[in-house]
Structures are given as structure tokens and as C-alpha cells.
Specification:
Layout: E1 13-14, H1 17-22, H2 30-35, E2 46-52, E3 61-69, E4 75-84, E5 87-90, H3 94-119, H4 122-127, H5 141-144, H6 148-166
Helix pairs in contact: 3-6
């Protein structure tokens, strides 16, 4: 099967104002409209299906799924598109969304670690409401702030920062 059908086209959009002036965009005409777009592949193993995004609304929002027929006549969705007010665009893949969120989380985590390394661990003890002294619970907070611990914590944070840079 041609790898073109799996190509990421999330940066593109398409619309045909002439077609839209001559035809109403409905669930029945949606595939005909999609057929003229840059996203349509004329492969006999592909199946396109259009559904309204919100069946109870009068808006022109549609979801088009591009599926491939597999050997046992089952359909496997290979990409999804949205048509909103006549503009067609490809939906991002789950992988792309997760990669973006992981990248954003990594950025925030790196900034937090750099801030801790820059400001030092002494500021942590000052911000503890009980002054870093041991209270009635079982955690020995003084142990966390012994003189030898900040260097070890700094080493761990530096190592974590290097790992994040390698992502």
C-alpha cells in the first residue's frame, strides 16, 4: 500500500468556495466535497465515511474518516479529517498530540530543575512551614537538609536535566 495515505498533512487546509456556493454541505454531500480536496486518495482499498460532529446542531461540522480495507474485510482508520464551515483539515494523530504534550512537560520540568539548581537547596528549608524541624510525623526533615544531601540532590537533578536534554 502506498505510504502517501499515511502522510502527515496537519499543516494544510483546503476549501472550495465555488463548490460551496453551488451545493449545500450536508452529511450526504460531504464525501463529494472531500473528493475534490488535496486530502482525497483514489485508492480502491480506501473507504471514506462522513458523520456530523454534533448531530443535534445545525452547524456545518463534519468528521471524515479514511479507512483501509484489511485482508479480512475489516476497516482500519488511517487518518481523520474535519470539515468546519467548508474548510477541510487533517486531525492530529494521537502520537503527535502526546509528543507535543511530553515536549511541553519536559520543558517545564527542565525549567524547574534549572531553577532549583540555580537557587540552591537552602531555599527549600526556609520555605518549609515548620522550619525544617522534625514534627510529630515519621519523616525526618532535618535529614533531607543535611550538608551532604544538597550535593547529592544537585547531582541527581543535573543527571535528570541531562536525561531530559537527550529526549
Amino acid at each position: 500500500m502506498d505510504r502517501e495515505m499515511y502522510k502527515d498533512q496537519t499543516g494544510f487546509s483546503w476549501h472550495d468556495p465555488v463548490w460551496l456556493q453551488q451545493n449545500p454541505l450536508t452529511e450526504d454531500t460531504c464525501i463529494s466535497y472531500f473528493h475534490g480536496s488535496i486530502f482525497y486518495d483514489n485508492d480502491k482499498d480506501l473507504v471514506y465515511k462522513a458523520t456530523k460532529i454534533n448531530p443535534n446542531a445545525d452547524d456545518q461540522g463534519f468528521r471524515v474518516t479514511k479507512s483501509v480495507k484489511e485482508y479480512n474485510n475489516t476497516l482500519k482508520c488511517v487518518s481523520m479529517y474535519f470539515i468546519i464551515d467548508g474548510i477541510i483539515f487533517q486531525a492530529a494523530s494521537l502520537r503527535a498530540v502526546l509528543e507535543e504534550r511530553l515536549e511541553r512537560a519536559s520543558f517545564c520540568l527542565k525549567n524547574a530543575i534549572q531553577s532549583i539548581l540555580k537557587n540552591g537547596n537552602h531555599s527549600l528549608k526556609e520555605k518549609v512551614p515548620w522550619g525544617g524541624e522534625n514534627q510529630d510525623d515519621d519523616v525526618d526533615y532535618d535529614f533531607l537538609f543535611e550538608e551532604s544531601k544538597p550535593k547529592r540532590v544537585e547531582k541527581i537533578l543535573t543527571s535528570a536535566l541531562n536525561e531530559l536534554d537527550d529526549l
